[in-house]
Amino acid sequence: MAxxxxxxxxxxxxxxxxxxxxxxRRPRKWKVLLHxxxxxxxEFVVHVLVNHFHKGPAEATHIMLQVHRKGVGVAGxxxxxxxxxxxxxxxxxxxxxxxxxxxxxxPAEGNDEE
Length: 114
Known about the structure:
Layout: H1 6-12, E1 29-35, H2 42-53, H3 57-70, E2 72-79, H4 80-96, E3 102-107
Antiparallel strand pairs: 1-2, 1-3
């Protein structure tokens, strides 16, 4: 009885099922933006940055001053779901405290499409 070699089996299986790999992209990141207005206090903006975005007092003050001087500031960059949740939570707290703070989320530049 002749021994069967691995090469013989390989030659019989000439066609292999090859599945193309899809390129995996990281989910797009979203910036949460705080917008300046004439009524929301600077202290409240710092409070929001410390309590909702976990910024230290110095960084929160720096971002608050950007919002005040430039009209908008980035509170943080997150996945879309987290960004939307932060917008809703901060907006709810602002309204509960009589503040018209505008909070939005937009795609961060340099990220792949979803």
